[in-house]
From TrEMBL:
This is Transposase. Residues 1-78 form the Insertion element IS402-like domain. NCBIfam families: transpos_IS5_3. InterPro entries: IS402-like_dom, Transposase_6_like. Residues 104-140 are annotated as: Disordered. It comes from Streptomyces caelestis.
Length: 140
């Protein structure tokens, strides 16, 4: 991760709380973020994150992701990046898509017409062919 990107992300991260239990030192946030990005990019499972890469354990990265998500870090980062792209005039709105499924309808649509019953005119059963026609063992 570049120093420029890290300088945007670092101020958004919450301060870690005090350690309740003595043990291993806390993995630095930048390393944990690189571990999160590695898992999300490669698609491997959290528990298979290689410790040799120096990101900490997969569980550490997963917990950090959950804590940052709860703190709203990703929403804040999204706004920071949008502001930065707008100021640099690097947003191409011609490729934007709006999903209308998230727009509340002002009025109700027309009432649905009840489906026609098919009980009176039953269709032919196509699954019960005679065994002579459906048999595959006709070779003699």
């Amino acid at each position: 991760m570049s120093d420029e990107l890290w300088s945007l992300i670092e101020p958004l991260l919450p301060e870690p709380g005090p350690k309740l239990v003595a043990g291993r030192p806390r993995v630095p946030d930048r390393q944990a973020l690189c571990g999160i990005l590695f898992v999300l990019h490669t698609g491997i499972q959290w528990e298979y994150l290689p410790q040799e890469l120096g990101f900490g354990s997969g569980m550490t990265c997963w917990r950090r992701l959950a804590a940052w998500n709860e703190a709203g870090v990703w929403d804040q980062l999204h706004l920071v990046l949008l502001k930065r792209l707008r100021s640099a005039k690097q947003l191409d709105w011609s490729r934007a898509v709006m999903d209308s499924s998230h727009v509340r309808a002002a009025r109700r649509g027309p009432k649905a017409v009840p489906a026609r019953s098919t009980a009176h005119g039953r269709a032919a059963n196509t699954t019960s062919l005679s065994m002579a026609r459906a048999s595959r063992s006709r070779c003699r």
